Amino acid sequence: MGDISTYNGSAILAMTGKNCVAIISDKRFGVQYQTISMDFDKIYSVTPKLFYGLGGLVTDMQTFSSKLKFRTNLYEIKNGRTMEPAVLTKCISSMLYEKRFGPFFVQPVIAGLDKDNKPFIASMDSIGACTFPDDFVVGGTAEENLFGMSESLWRPDMEADDLKHVCTQCFLAGINRDALSGWGAVLYLITPDGVIREDIEGRMD
Question: What pTM was computed for the model?
Fold first, then answer.
């Protein structure tokens, strides 16, 4: 069976622009090379300006997202405010590190705008070790392909329309070279004015 974190397949990409950020994931839910569903959502909303995606083992993704929803709701009740991106990242990292001896097989990617509408992206491994780049983060079984395309096409201070176009093209090129992810994608473009959700058509073979 190999690496259990690649059992179901996944691909996630988050990319920054000028006062905007985009996060995109594939829709495939499979068991190794067998495709079961083509509308499986791997991106979750915390606030209107803050999203996170999960790659990895689907059962762990569902369990982890459920536990995280409980923690974010509890935070809002106790503090009277919603989570900022940096706080969510620390919360996720802490949850993963708590289970480091029997980890969740998930690979989180966080994307959002902070209170000053500054783009924020982060990713981490299955025990919560974080990275905070300024350009893009990737996750899932297609991450090596996504790295190459994103390094080639990303440029600083892209406007929202340019960011959406670049992010989509990088993602489609990446998943076309990975048999465990794909079958279309869903993109969230987060701007100070709101969130745009767009379904992206991809190869279906």
Answer: 0.90
**Is 140 within the bounds of a domain?**
yes
How many CA atoms lie less than 13 Å away from 159 in the CB half-sphere? 2
Domain assignment of residue 81, yes or no: yes
Domain of residue 138, CATH code: 3.60.20.10
* Residue 142 located in a structural domain: yes
Determine the Cα–Cα distance for residues 11 and 26; give it in Å rounded to an integer. Answer: 6
Torsional sign, CA 150, 152, 157, 159: negative
Residue 205 within a domain: no
User: Which range of residues forms the domain containing residue 191?
Assistant: 4-200
pLDDT by residue for the chain (205 residues), tens digit each?
557 777 888 889 999 999 999 999 998 888 888 778 778 889 999 999 999 999 888 899 999 999 999 999 999 999 999 999 999 999 999 999 999 898 899 999 999 999 888 999 999 988 989 999 999 999 888 888 888 889 888 999 899 999 999 999 999 888 888 777 878 889 999 999 999 998 888 776 5
